[in-house]
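not sure who needs this but someone in the group chat was asking about MarR family winged helix-turn-helix transcriptional regulator from Sphingomonas floccifaciens so here u go. i didnt clean anything up, its just raw.
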Amino acid sequence: MSKDFATAVRFGFLIHDVSRLRRIVIDRALKPVGITRSQWWVLSFLGRRDGMTQTALATDLDLTKVAIGGLLDRMETAGFVERRADQRDGRIRRVYLTPAGNRFLATIRVNIEHAEQEILADVSEADLETTARTMRTIKKTLRSIAGADDTED
């Protein structure tokens, strides 16, 4: 693929369109279990890195500290997460999945797995692997340009 400006812009729009349409499909898959995509993302991030700080969650989810605070308030009230002071610095709040949050995450994964299979039904394993590798490379480059730490996959 040529790296001219028009091609690069179209590629960027394609990424945006795929992401937007995927969000619509995922929202529909989450509706029957009564959870929002933002809540699912919190549970998913904690499923991978339990004990994240509220600030790290806000950054990873591209939310403000106020927005993540309200989201976590609702999720804590529902019994899915709990916030605890950091053992070394009491000003830092860490967020942990509760047993109910872990169980709910497992339920959600069933709905999401079906949606993901449907989304990728017409994509070969080889194409998926190539695309994923390409997207990781682009992500790494973007994180570097943005000055972000590149510790994630």
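also DSSP finds six helices and three strands in the chain. if thats useful
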